[in-house]
């Protein structure tokens, strides 16, 4: 499976959407863990950013899960991903470290959705989900990730 080639089947589409779900689960778990483990005097703007990122990722995950459900495929439960993140990831309490981590998460998600959209658009496969609905959902998520990148970079610039 590659995002450099057109998506060729429902099965491949379901797997790619599941990758998006896992990506969103990791972003959600990491943002929540940062917010939970950082100092109580955490900058309010950073706390708001992390809370928003976790909430937005949960929403993205839900939208992607609906698409996967429509394809009649199974997903990995969020609780399993959250436990893996907690077992292997310790939140960096440094303000800049948290921001760089969040920026990386937002940029990675944006690039994934951008590539996935291009692969679907390049495909002539008839999927069992409505192509326009699929692309609308993915484009909306991609734009929200772009907004997230902008929010993080704005906060970083304010700190300079």
Q: Your description of this structure?
A:
This protein has 160 residues and is mostly helical. 76% of the residues lie in helices and 0% in strands. The protein has helices spanning 10-37, 44-70, 78-88, 95-121, 131-159. Helix 1 (10-37) runs antiparallel to helix 2, helix 1 crosses helix 3 (78-88) and helix 2 runs antiparallel to helix 5. It is elongated, with a radius of gyration of 16 Å. The protein starts with 9 loop residues before the first helix and ends with a helix. The relative contact order is 0.19. Residues 87-92 have low confidence and may be disordered.
What is the radius of gyration? Answer: 16 Å
Broad shape:
elongated
| Count of strand segments | 0
Figure out the total of helices. Answer: 5
Beta-strand proportion: under 5%
The average pLDDT value, as a whole number, equals 83
SSE pattern: HHHHH
The low-pLDDT segments are 87-92
Topology:
Elements: H1 10-37, H2 44-70, H3 78-88, H4 95-121, H5 131-159
Helix pairs in contact: 1-2, 1-3, 1-4, 2-5, 4-5
What keywords describe this structure?
mainly alpha, 160 residues, 76% helix, elongated
Question: How would you concisely characterize the structure shown here?
Answer:
With 160 residues, the protein is mainly alpha-helical. It is 76% helix and 0% strand.
């Amino acid at each position: 499976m590659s995002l450099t080639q057109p998506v060729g089947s429902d099965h491949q589409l379901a797997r790619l959407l599941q990758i998006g779900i896992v990506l969103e689960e990791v972003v959600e778990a990491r943002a929540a863990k940062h917010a939970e483990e950082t100092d109580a005097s955490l900058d309010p703007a950073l706390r708001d950013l992390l809370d928003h990122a976790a909430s937005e990722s949960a929403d993205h995950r839900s939208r992607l899960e609906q698409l996967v459900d429509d394809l009649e495929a199974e997903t990995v439960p969020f609780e399993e991903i959250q436990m893996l993140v907690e077992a292997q990831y310790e939140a960096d309490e440094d303000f800049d470290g948290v921001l760089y981590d969040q920026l990386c998460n937002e940029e990675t998600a944006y690039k994934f959705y951008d590539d996935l959209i291009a692969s679907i658009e390049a495909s002539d496969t008839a999927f069992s989900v409505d192509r326009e609905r699929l692309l609308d959902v993915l484009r909306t998520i991609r734009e929200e990730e772009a907004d997230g990148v902008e929010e993080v970079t704005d906060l970083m610039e304010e700190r300079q």
